[in-house]
Write a sequence for this structure.
């Protein structure tokens, strides 16, 4: 079997393939033939050496995989051979609010990840895959899907008729758009590209704004919300967007602090939060319980997550480079066959 490894900070060029032999399963472990792995901005951060948690040793990267169970340990009860499964982001965060213990292990960050043709995992760290999804689609829920779910429905507790602003057309934002549409929310999305905004419109975005040609996009968000602003901003932009995101959040609304694709420094004025009774809420992906809730919603709503481009296993470096170039809309996937 083949896998990739890299040293945090070694860059994409440090990604190297290697061969390994399957090891014996522990009683509660499951062997999975991985079929697809989806990449996240986080994987670029690990390669660059600026992710939250990183190993000092060469590590198999990646957190999001889907595949089929090929063998189960003697005490496994959750799965049988042949089941289609996906990985969860934090193997130890099953349910309830996060704790340092539950979020201590993060595959692809400080523990072996999923960019491999085969993985062994504790049965508690896997979830079934919705029946209508293929493996490429199923591999996109673990990080981007669960993060968007957590922001919209756990932290912000949005309900039909509420409004959400999504920034850019990457993995988290397009997941947010698809979930928001399914839940009957008003959706506003920004992008640097008119072509991507057209795709977002075709996916059901109510309002689209090009943040390159309209750099003061906060005025447009306020205009289309009759001056009130939105109930939630899924804040993935950081340095170049956060202050504007606060401005366009409705009184008592939420700014879900998810990422910082433009950097992490901020000069947000506390007064803007106080006077608007606005809430900033840090999001750290989510639990297995959230992943299972997302599975159910995806199943009922018949959502097919947007997979922009699929790369072969041998093209893993090209897949990373494609993500880094920011040309994608939705998710980038590597097939492991
Ligand atoms: N806290 C968590 O648990 C968590 C979970 C997942 C992700 N994240 C973070 O969330 C961020 C997004 O992750 P991702 O995997 O969705 O990334 P991604 O798929 O690589 O998407 C990045 C997109 O951001 C957009 N963008 C770039 N600069 C922008 C700007 N100045 N204003 C608005 N949009 C901009 C671009 O969209 P256009 O091409 O349309 O312009 C780009 O395609 C990252 O910082 C990541 O680390 C955090």
């Amino acid at each position: 079997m083949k896998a990739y490894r890299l040293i945090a900070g070694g860059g994409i060029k440090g990604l190297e393939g290697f061969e390994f032999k399957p090891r014996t399963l522990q009683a509660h472990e499951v062997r999975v033939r991985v079929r697809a792995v989806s990449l996240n901005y986080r994987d670029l951060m690990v390669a660059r050496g600026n992710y939250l948690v990183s190993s000092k040793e060469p590590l198999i990267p990646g957190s999001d995989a889907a595949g089929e169970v090929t063998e189960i340990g003697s005490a496994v009860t959750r799965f049988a051979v042949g089941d289609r499964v996906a990985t969860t982001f934090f193997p130890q965060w099953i349910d309830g609010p996060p704790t340092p213990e539950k979020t201590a292990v993060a595959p692809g960050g400080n523990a072996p990840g999923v960019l491999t043709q085969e993985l062994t995992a504790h049965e508690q760290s896997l979830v079934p895959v919705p029946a209508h999804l293929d493996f490429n689609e199923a591999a996109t829920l673990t990080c981007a899907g669960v993060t968007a779910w957590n922001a919209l429905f756990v932290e912000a507790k949005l309900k039909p008729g509420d409004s959400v602003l999504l920034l850019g057309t990457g993995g988290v934002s397009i997941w947010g758009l698809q979930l928001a549409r399914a839940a009957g929310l008003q959706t506003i999305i920004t992008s640097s590209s008119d072509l991507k905004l057209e795709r977002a419109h075709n996916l059901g975005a109510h309002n689209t704004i090009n943040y390159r040609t309209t750099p003061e996009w906060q005025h447009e968000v306020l205009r289309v919300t009759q001056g009130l602003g939105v109930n939630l901003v899924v804040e993935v932009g950081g340095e170049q967007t956060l202050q504007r995101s606060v401005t366009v959040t409705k009184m008592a609304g939420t700014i879900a602090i998810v990422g910082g694709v433009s950097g992490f420094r901020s000069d947000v004025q506390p007064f803007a939060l106080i006077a608007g009774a606005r809430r900033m809420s840090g999001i750290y992906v989510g639990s297995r319980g959230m992943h299972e809730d997302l599975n159910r919603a995806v199943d009922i709503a018949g959502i097919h997550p947007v997979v922009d481009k699929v790369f072969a296993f041998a093209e893993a470096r090209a897949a990373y480079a494609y993500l880094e170039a920011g040309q994608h809309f939705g998710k980038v996937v590597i097939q492991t066959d």
